[in-house]
Amino acid sequence: MDTVRSTSGSRHEILERRKRERLRAERKRKMLIRRIISGAALLAFIAIIVVIIVSATSCAKKRKAAKAALAGDVAASESSDSKRPNPEAASIAKKAEPDYPFVNQNPIVDGMIKVGDTHFIAGYEANRTSSTIYPPEEISQSTYSILIDASTGEIVAGQNEKDRMYPASMTKVMTLLVAVEHIKNLDDTIYVSQEAADWSYSHGGSAVNWSVGEKITVKDLLYGCILSSGADACYDLAVYVAGSLDGFVDLMNAKVDELGLSGTTHFTNCAGFYDDNHYTTVYDMALIMKAAAENDLCREVMSAHIYTTPMTDEHPEGILISNWFLRRIEDKETKGEVLCAKTGFVNESGNCAVSYMLSDSGTPYICCTGHAHSGWRAIYDHVGLYYNYTK
Known about the structure:
Layout: H1 2-77, H2 87-95, E1 108-109, E2 112-115, E3 118-121, E4 127-133, E5 144-149, E6 154-159, H3 171-180, E7 189-191, H4 194-202, E8 215-217, H5 218-226, H6 231-242, H7 245-258, H8 282-293, H9 296-302, E9 306-308, E10 320-322, H10 324-329, E11 336-346, E12 350-359, E13 364-372, H11 375-389
Parallel strand pairs: 4-6
Antiparallel strand pairs: 1-2, 2-3, 5-6, 5-13, 7-8, 9-10, 11-12, 12-13
Helix pairs in contact: 2-6, 3-8, 4-6, 5-6, 6-7
């Protein structure tokens, strides 16, 4: 009996021992699996870190190479002390080369000058006739307004058109015209100045918002001046052309005198900031637009609805700028197509605008309005004048 019990106990112990061994083996297996998984995760993490480091190193090398290339461009185009080109020296060089390719080259034949697909009457004078209309309020609510048939010089409609007003950013039509007449190469490069940003900001002006030191072209400045009404673009454009703001303003007023408008128009700055001595009339402003529209390059810039500046390190996708007047009026019924336009606003001028339209009959018209109560009202005043009084 005792022998049976002893044998039974031995078997039980053996079974228990085997059970414990199986449990230990299972625990070892699970631990090994956990270690393998942890090791794989660690290896994956290390691989990710290595990829990030390699990518960052590669990007750093590319940036360094780009900066080296840019430095090479700067060294080739600037003086040995690596400063920005001296604007006064550039201006002096231009004055020694009188053949400016972007000055209006269209000939006058039989008193008419070809402008794109139409003809303007030569000269910068417009006259009232017995049929000149005083537009009622339901047509135009602007305090000042004028509509000129550019093919005849007839004032089709007008209200207070020779009363003094402040042109605000319509000034930039003259800024564009003067700049275009004094440049030789649209691909000349400049470096955006801190002074331009400060000048625009201190006067509460609109800006293209390039980065200080960003390398751009003269062509970019022209579009920035008109489409985004950038005071920063105007500043650097003025310094590029004339060496200083005052020098450029002198050129603007010389152009005013050339157009025969010096008795009623005077500029003190190139952006249209308010100054009591910075004034014009809608009559004069319409004739300044006429002169600008007669210039092929000016007309090209003022007729652009959108423009994207080139890609730079600071703006890899460029900057998209728009002529909002053209984009807002393009779907309105004007009995023609508004080809060029520039708006403006300061408190003293209200909302103002000047535009050029080619009617469905092929007749060119120029419209200018001032002191509307809103930007949209200025647009609708142009729509009303064009729709009701053109042919």
